[in-house]
Amino acid sequence: MGLKTEFIDIEISEEEKDLYSRQFDLGGWSQKIIKNSRVLIVGVGGVGCEVAKNLARIGVGYLDLVDLDIIERSNLSRQVLYKPGDEGRPKVKVATERLKEINPFITVKGYYTSLEHLDPAIYKAADVIIAAIDTRRSRLNLNSHCIRFKKPFVEGGVGGYHGYVCSVFPFENACSIEIPRERIVRRRIPRKRIHCVFKAYSEFEKNKELTPDPENSEHINFILNYANNLVSTYDFFPLFTDKEVKKIISRSPQLITVITMISAMISHETIKILHWLNGNKSLGKPITSQHLFNAITMQLFPIEIKRNPNCSVCGDKVNRVNVKLKKNAHCEEIIQSLINMGFERDNHMKYPILTIMDFDGMKKINLDNTPIDNKLRNLELITAVGFKGGEIFINLELE
Ligand SMILES: [Zn+2]
After folding, report:
1. Domain holding 384: CATH number?
2. Which of 73, 256, 307, 332 is the 20 to 30 A CA-CA neighbour of 178?
3. Short-list 245, 163, 243, 255, CA closest to 199
Protein backbone atom coordinates (compact mmCIF):
# COMPACT_ATOMS: atom_id res chain seq x y z
CA MET A 1 0.00 0.00 0.00
CA GLY A 2 2.95 2.28 0.52
CA LEU A 3 1.26 3.94 3.45
CA LYS A 4 2.98 1.71 5.94
CA THR A 5 6.30 3.13 4.78
CA GLU A 6 4.88 6.62 5.18
CA PHE A 7 3.95 5.74 8.76
CA ILE A 8 7.38 4.38 9.61
CA ASP A 9 8.96 7.53 8.14
CA ILE A 10 7.48 9.75 10.84
CA GLU A 11 8.81 9.75 14.35
CA ILE A 12 6.85 7.14 16.19
CA SER A 13 8.32 5.22 19.06
CA GLU A 14 8.68 1.44 19.11
CA GLU A 15 6.06 1.38 21.87
CA GLU A 16 3.59 3.20 19.65
CA LYS A 17 4.28 0.87 16.74
CA ASP A 18 3.54 -2.02 19.07
CA LEU A 19 0.37 -0.38 20.34
CA TYR A 20 -1.09 0.21 16.88
CA SER A 21 0.35 -2.88 15.19
CA ARG A 22 -3.03 -4.43 14.33
CA GLN A 23 -4.16 -1.27 12.54
CA PHE A 24 -1.12 -1.21 10.19
CA ASP A 25 -2.37 -4.20 8.31
CA LEU A 26 -5.63 -2.54 7.35
CA GLY A 27 -5.70 -1.71 3.64
CA GLY A 28 -5.00 1.97 3.07
CA TRP A 29 -4.81 2.85 6.74
CA SER A 30 -2.55 5.80 7.53
CA GLN A 31 -1.46 6.12 11.16
CA LYS A 32 0.40 9.25 10.09
CA ILE A 33 -2.86 10.96 9.15
CA ILE A 34 -4.46 9.79 12.40
CA LYS A 35 -1.56 10.95 14.52
CA ASN A 36 -1.50 14.38 12.90
CA SER A 37 -5.21 14.96 13.38
CA ARG A 38 -7.03 17.10 15.90
CA VAL A 39 -10.65 16.39 16.81
CA LEU A 40 -12.94 18.45 19.02
CA ILE A 41 -15.57 16.43 20.89
CA VAL A 42 -18.43 18.50 22.22
CA GLY A 43 -20.13 16.73 25.11
CA VAL A 44 -18.69 13.79 27.06
CA GLY A 45 -21.90 12.05 28.06
CA GLY A 46 -22.87 8.60 26.76
CA VAL A 47 -21.94 9.14 23.10
CA GLY A 48 -19.04 11.54 23.78
CA CYS A 49 -17.32 9.12 26.19
CA GLU A 50 -17.50 6.25 23.71
CA VAL A 51 -16.27 8.31 20.78
CA ALA A 52 -13.41 9.83 22.82
CA LYS A 53 -12.38 6.37 24.03
CA ASN A 54 -12.38 5.03 20.45
CA LEU A 55 -10.43 7.92 18.97
CA ALA A 56 -7.90 7.82 21.82
CA ARG A 57 -7.28 4.09 21.35
CA ILE A 58 -6.97 4.53 17.58
CA GLY A 59 -4.32 7.19 18.25
CA VAL A 60 -5.86 10.47 17.07
CA GLY A 61 -3.00 12.78 18.02
CA TYR A 62 -4.93 15.62 19.61
CA LEU A 63 -8.31 15.54 21.29
CA ASP A 64 -10.13 18.59 22.66
CA LEU A 65 -13.09 17.88 24.92
CA VAL A 66 -15.68 20.37 26.11
CA ASP A 67 -18.47 19.78 28.60
CA LEU A 68 -20.14 21.56 31.50
CA ASP A 69 -21.77 18.60 33.27
CA ILE A 70 -21.07 16.92 36.59
CA ILE A 71 -21.00 13.12 36.92
CA GLU A 72 -24.11 11.66 38.52
CA ARG A 73 -24.70 8.11 39.67
CA SER A 74 -27.20 7.46 36.85
CA ASN A 75 -24.46 8.25 34.29
CA LEU A 76 -22.45 5.22 35.35
CA SER A 77 -24.79 2.79 33.58
CA ARG A 78 -23.74 4.03 30.16
CA GLN A 79 -20.90 6.59 30.22
CA VAL A 80 -17.84 4.37 29.88
CA LEU A 81 -15.11 6.72 31.09
CA TYR A 82 -16.61 7.10 34.58
CA LYS A 83 -16.74 4.74 37.53
CA PRO A 84 -18.17 4.66 41.05
CA GLY A 85 -16.50 7.32 43.17
CA ASP A 86 -16.42 9.88 40.32
CA GLU A 87 -19.84 11.30 41.23
CA GLY A 88 -19.78 15.05 41.74
CA ARG A 89 -16.67 15.62 39.59
CA PRO A 90 -16.81 17.48 36.25
CA LYS A 91 -17.15 14.94 33.42
CA VAL A 92 -14.57 16.65 31.24
CA LYS A 93 -11.87 16.52 33.94
CA VAL A 94 -12.36 12.82 34.63
CA ALA A 95 -12.62 12.01 30.89
CA THR A 96 -9.34 13.83 30.20
CA GLU A 97 -7.54 11.89 32.94
CA ARG A 98 -8.89 8.53 31.78
CA LEU A 99 -8.05 9.14 28.12
CA LYS A 100 -4.48 10.04 29.03
CA GLU A 101 -4.25 6.74 30.88
CA ILE A 102 -5.74 4.88 27.91
CA ASN A 103 -3.23 6.38 25.50
CA PRO A 104 -0.25 8.31 26.88
CA PHE A 105 1.02 9.03 23.34
CA ILE A 106 -1.71 11.53 22.48
CA THR A 107 -2.57 15.03 23.68
CA VAL A 108 -5.90 15.46 25.43
CA LYS A 109 -7.22 18.84 26.54
CA GLY A 110 -10.44 19.24 28.52
CA TYR A 111 -12.43 22.45 28.85
CA TYR A 112 -14.96 22.66 31.66
CA THR A 113 -17.00 25.41 30.08
CA SER A 114 -20.00 26.24 27.92
CA LEU A 115 -19.77 26.42 24.13
CA GLU A 116 -20.27 30.17 24.37
CA HIS A 117 -17.15 30.50 26.50
CA LEU A 118 -14.95 28.08 24.58
CA ASP A 119 -12.07 29.87 22.88
CA PRO A 120 -13.05 30.14 19.17
CA ALA A 121 -9.44 29.24 18.25
CA ILE A 122 -10.22 25.66 19.34
CA TYR A 123 -12.97 25.29 16.73
CA LYS A 124 -10.60 26.68 14.14
CA ALA A 125 -7.82 24.27 15.09
CA ALA A 126 -10.00 21.17 14.72
CA ASP A 127 -9.93 18.94 11.63
CA VAL A 128 -13.28 17.42 12.53
CA ILE A 129 -15.80 18.45 15.17
CA ILE A 130 -18.06 15.92 16.85
CA ALA A 131 -21.39 16.92 18.34
CA ALA A 132 -22.43 14.56 21.11
CA ILE A 133 -24.91 16.92 22.72
CA ASP A 134 -28.63 16.89 23.22
CA THR A 135 -29.77 20.47 23.51
CA ARG A 136 -30.99 22.42 20.56
CA ARG A 137 -29.29 25.63 21.67
CA SER A 138 -25.82 24.06 21.85
CA ARG A 139 -26.42 22.47 18.46
CA LEU A 140 -27.31 25.82 16.89
CA ASN A 141 -24.30 27.41 18.51
CA LEU A 142 -21.94 24.66 17.37
CA ASN A 143 -23.42 24.70 13.88
CA SER A 144 -22.66 28.40 13.47
CA HIS A 145 -18.96 27.83 14.28
CA CYS A 146 -18.65 24.76 12.07
CA ILE A 147 -20.13 26.66 9.14
CA ARG A 148 -18.03 29.80 9.56
CA PHE A 149 -14.78 27.86 9.94
CA LYS A 150 -15.88 25.33 7.25
CA LYS A 151 -15.27 22.38 9.57
CA PRO A 152 -16.79 19.00 8.83
CA PHE A 153 -18.77 17.77 11.74
CA VAL A 154 -20.24 14.47 12.72
CA GLU A 155 -23.31 14.35 14.85
CA GLY A 156 -25.27 11.60 16.49
CA GLY A 157 -27.92 10.99 19.07
CA VAL A 158 -29.79 8.23 20.81
CA GLY A 159 -33.37 7.99 22.01
CA GLY A 160 -34.82 4.71 23.20
CA TYR A 161 -34.02 1.89 20.74
CA HIS A 162 -33.27 4.36 17.95
CA GLY A 163 -30.43 6.60 17.01
CA TYR A 164 -28.99 8.61 14.17
CA VAL A 165 -25.65 9.61 12.69
CA CYS A 166 -24.99 12.31 10.15
CA SER A 167 -22.09 14.34 8.84
CA VAL A 168 -22.20 17.94 7.77
CA PHE A 169 -19.81 19.30 5.17
CA PRO A 170 -20.38 23.05 5.28
CA PHE A 171 -21.82 24.51 2.07
CA GLU A 172 -21.97 21.05 0.47
CA ASN A 173 -24.83 19.29 2.26
CA ALA A 174 -27.50 20.39 4.72
CA CYS A 175 -26.17 21.99 7.88
CA SER A 176 -27.21 20.86 11.34
CA ILE A 177 -30.23 23.16 11.67
CA GLU A 178 -31.80 21.62 8.54
CA ILE A 179 -31.60 18.07 9.86
CA PRO A 180 -34.84 16.88 11.43
CA ARG A 181 -34.29 14.83 14.58
CA GLU A 182 -37.82 14.22 15.69
CA ARG A 183 -38.07 11.34 13.21
CA ILE A 184 -35.82 9.15 15.31
CA VAL A 185 -37.81 9.18 18.49
CA ARG A 186 -40.99 11.03 17.71
CA ARG A 187 -43.65 9.61 15.45
CA ARG A 188 -46.42 11.55 13.81
CA ILE A 189 -49.11 9.46 15.44
CA PRO A 190 -48.49 8.46 19.07
CA ARG A 191 -48.60 4.68 19.59
CA LYS A 192 -48.27 4.90 23.36
CA ARG A 193 -49.42 7.39 25.95
CA ILE A 194 -45.84 8.57 26.59
CA HIS A 195 -45.34 9.37 22.88
CA CYS A 196 -47.76 12.29 23.38
CA VAL A 197 -45.15 13.93 25.62
CA PHE A 198 -42.32 13.14 23.17
CA LYS A 199 -44.31 14.72 20.35
CA ALA A 200 -45.08 17.79 22.51
CA TYR A 201 -41.37 18.00 23.37
CA SER A 202 -40.28 18.17 19.72
CA GLU A 203 -43.08 20.62 18.97
CA PHE A 204 -41.71 22.85 21.73
CA GLU A 205 -38.17 22.63 20.29
CA LYS A 206 -39.45 23.52 16.83
CA ASN A 207 -41.55 26.47 17.98
CA LYS A 208 -39.28 28.02 20.58
CA GLU A 209 -35.89 26.98 19.17
CA LEU A 210 -35.02 25.89 22.71
CA THR A 211 -34.73 22.66 24.63
CA PRO A 212 -37.43 22.67 27.31
CA ASP A 213 -36.22 23.24 30.83
CA PRO A 214 -37.99 20.96 33.36
CA GLU A 215 -37.68 23.74 35.97
CA ASN A 216 -39.48 26.33 33.83
CA SER A 217 -43.25 26.30 34.45
CA GLU A 218 -44.03 28.00 31.11
CA HIS A 219 -42.13 25.28 29.27
CA ILE A 220 -43.87 22.57 31.27
CA ASN A 221 -47.29 24.12 30.61
CA PHE A 222 -46.68 24.24 26.87
CA ILE A 223 -45.76 20.56 26.80
CA LEU A 224 -48.54 19.58 29.19
CA ASN A 225 -51.23 21.26 27.07
CA TYR A 226 -49.90 19.93 23.78
CA ALA A 227 -49.49 16.40 25.15
CA ASN A 228 -52.94 16.35 26.74
CA ASN A 229 -54.52 17.45 23.47
CA LEU A 230 -52.98 14.38 21.87
CA VAL A 231 -54.07 12.22 24.81
CA SER A 232 -57.65 13.36 24.18
CA THR A 233 -57.44 13.01 20.38
CA TYR A 234 -55.98 9.49 20.44
CA ASP A 235 -57.75 8.31 23.56
CA PHE A 236 -54.75 7.62 25.77
CA PHE A 237 -56.41 8.72 29.02
CA PRO A 238 -55.75 9.63 31.83
CA LEU A 239 -54.43 13.13 31.13
CA PHE A 240 -50.86 13.93 32.21
CA THR A 241 -50.13 15.99 35.30
CA ASP A 242 -47.36 18.62 35.31
CA LYS A 243 -45.33 16.44 37.71
CA GLU A 244 -45.44 13.52 35.30
CA VAL A 245 -44.38 15.71 32.35
CA LYS A 246 -41.51 17.15 34.37
CA LYS A 247 -40.24 13.68 35.18
CA ILE A 248 -40.50 12.45 31.60
CA ILE A 249 -38.70 15.37 30.00
CA SER A 250 -35.93 15.42 32.61
CA ARG A 251 -34.30 12.41 30.99
CA SER A 252 -34.91 10.52 27.78
CA PRO A 253 -34.51 6.75 28.09
CA GLN A 254 -31.17 5.46 26.81
CA LEU A 255 -29.36 2.15 26.70
CA ILE A 256 -25.60 1.64 26.53
CA THR A 257 -25.83 -0.89 23.67
CA VAL A 258 -27.54 1.58 21.34
CA ILE A 259 -25.19 4.36 22.48
CA THR A 260 -22.20 2.14 21.70
CA MET A 261 -23.45 1.30 18.21
CA ILE A 262 -24.15 4.93 17.32
CA SER A 263 -20.82 6.04 18.83
CA ALA A 264 -18.92 3.42 16.84
CA MET A 265 -20.48 4.78 13.64
CA ILE A 266 -19.59 8.35 14.60
CA SER A 267 -16.00 7.32 15.41
CA HIS A 268 -15.59 5.36 12.19
CA GLU A 269 -17.01 8.16 10.03
CA THR A 270 -14.58 10.56 11.74
CA ILE A 271 -11.66 8.31 10.81
CA LYS A 272 -12.95 8.12 7.23
CA ILE A 273 -13.25 11.91 7.04
CA LEU A 274 -9.69 12.37 8.37
CA HIS A 275 -8.35 10.06 5.65
CA TRP A 276 -10.56 11.59 2.96
CA LEU A 277 -9.53 15.16 3.84
CA ASN A 278 -5.92 14.13 3.39
CA GLY A 279 -6.57 12.70 -0.05
CA ASN A 280 -6.62 9.07 1.09
CA LYS A 281 -9.78 7.44 -0.24
CA SER A 282 -8.99 3.90 0.87
CA LEU A 283 -11.46 3.90 3.75
CA GLY A 284 -14.36 4.96 1.55
CA LYS A 285 -16.37 8.12 1.04
CA PRO A 286 -17.78 9.59 4.25
CA ILE A 287 -21.56 9.63 4.46
CA THR A 288 -23.28 12.87 3.54
CA SER A 289 -26.79 11.83 4.52
CA GLN A 290 -28.53 11.26 7.79
CA HIS A 291 -28.56 7.58 8.82
CA LEU A 292 -31.36 6.53 11.12
CA PHE A 293 -30.73 3.38 13.10
CA ASN A 294 -33.39 1.05 14.45
CA ALA A 295 -32.01 -1.34 17.05
CA ILE A 296 -35.20 -3.39 17.05
CA THR A 297 -34.76 -4.47 13.43
CA MET A 298 -30.99 -3.71 13.29
CA GLN A 299 -31.54 -1.64 10.18
CA LEU A 300 -30.06 1.60 8.94
CA PHE A 301 -32.11 4.03 6.89
CA PRO A 302 -30.16 6.64 4.93
CA ILE A 303 -32.01 9.88 4.26
CA GLU A 304 -30.49 12.42 1.92
CA ILE A 305 -30.92 15.94 3.22
CA LYS A 306 -30.01 18.47 0.58
CA ARG A 307 -28.46 21.79 1.42
CA ASN A 308 -31.04 24.55 1.57
CA PRO A 309 -29.75 27.55 -0.44
CA ASN A 310 -32.05 29.76 1.69
CA CYS A 311 -30.72 28.49 5.02
CA SER A 312 -30.21 31.27 7.57
CA VAL A 313 -26.75 29.95 8.47
CA CYS A 314 -25.19 28.38 5.36
CA GLY A 315 -27.48 29.78 2.63
CA ASP A 316 -26.33 31.69 -0.47
CA LYS A 317 -27.61 35.06 0.78
CA VAL A 318 -25.92 34.94 4.18
CA ASN A 319 -23.42 37.77 4.64
CA ARG A 320 -20.11 36.68 6.18
CA VAL A 321 -17.12 38.97 6.54
CA ASN A 322 -13.81 39.22 8.39
CA VAL A 323 -13.21 42.46 10.26
CA LYS A 324 -9.87 43.48 11.73
CA LEU A 325 -9.87 45.60 14.87
CA LYS A 326 -7.14 46.91 17.16
CA LYS A 327 -7.43 45.84 20.78
CA ASN A 328 -7.60 49.45 22.00
CA ALA A 329 -9.99 50.72 19.29
CA HIS A 330 -13.69 51.41 19.88
CA CYS A 331 -16.12 48.74 18.71
CA GLU A 332 -17.87 51.48 16.75
CA GLU A 333 -15.10 50.97 14.16
CA ILE A 334 -16.64 47.61 13.28
CA ILE A 335 -19.70 49.49 11.97
CA GLN A 336 -17.41 51.76 9.97
CA SER A 337 -15.58 48.76 8.50
CA LEU A 338 -18.89 47.28 7.34
CA ILE A 339 -19.85 50.59 5.69
CA ASN A 340 -16.42 50.72 4.03
CA MET A 341 -17.02 47.22 2.69
CA GLY A 342 -20.14 48.53 0.94
CA PHE A 343 -22.89 47.49 3.37
CA GLU A 344 -25.66 50.10 3.44
CA ARG A 345 -27.39 51.09 6.65
CA ASP A 346 -31.06 50.24 6.96
CA ASN A 347 -32.81 53.45 7.94
CA HIS A 348 -35.62 51.56 9.66
CA MET A 349 -33.19 51.15 12.52
CA LYS A 350 -31.85 54.07 14.49
CA TYR A 351 -28.34 52.64 14.59
CA PRO A 352 -26.83 49.19 13.85
CA ILE A 353 -26.55 46.76 16.74
CA LEU A 354 -23.73 44.27 17.28
CA THR A 355 -24.30 41.18 19.41
CA ILE A 356 -22.47 38.05 20.48
CA MET A 357 -23.97 34.78 21.65
CA ASP A 358 -23.84 34.59 25.40
CA PHE A 359 -24.82 31.93 27.90
CA ASP A 360 -28.25 33.46 28.42
CA GLY A 361 -28.96 34.42 24.83
CA MET A 362 -27.68 37.42 22.91
CA LYS A 363 -25.43 40.05 24.47
CA LYS A 364 -25.22 43.55 23.01
CA ILE A 365 -21.77 45.02 22.37
CA ASN A 366 -21.15 48.52 23.73
CA LEU A 367 -19.92 50.43 20.70
CA ASP A 368 -18.20 53.13 22.78
CA ASN A 369 -16.00 50.55 24.48
CA THR A 370 -12.96 48.61 23.33
CA PRO A 371 -13.16 44.92 22.40
CA ILE A 372 -11.32 44.11 25.63
CA ASP A 373 -13.91 45.99 27.73
CA ASN A 374 -16.61 44.09 25.85
CA LYS A 375 -14.74 40.86 26.63
CA LEU A 376 -14.41 40.07 22.92
CA ARG A 377 -11.81 37.47 21.96
CA ASN A 378 -9.88 36.94 18.76
CA LEU A 379 -12.09 35.09 16.19
CA GLU A 380 -15.25 36.12 18.08
CA LEU A 381 -18.43 35.59 16.08
CA ILE A 382 -20.38 38.85 15.99
CA THR A 383 -23.80 39.43 14.43
CA ALA A 384 -24.63 42.87 13.03
CA VAL A 385 -28.18 44.03 12.36
CA GLY A 386 -29.30 47.37 10.97
CA PHE A 387 -27.91 46.95 7.45
CA LYS A 388 -29.78 46.31 4.21
CA GLY A 389 -29.79 42.68 3.08
CA GLY A 390 -30.24 41.11 6.51
CA GLU A 391 -27.89 40.29 9.33
CA ILE A 392 -24.12 40.14 8.84
CA PHE A 393 -21.93 37.50 10.51
CA ILE A 394 -18.53 38.88 11.41
CA ASN A 395 -15.35 36.97 12.24
CA LEU A 396 -13.48 39.40 14.42
CA GLU A 397 -9.71 39.48 14.00
CA LEU A 398 -8.16 41.27 16.97
CA GLU A 399 -4.81 42.88 16.28
ZN1 LIG B 1 -27.68 25.58 6.71
Report:
1. 3.10.290.20
2. 256
3. 245
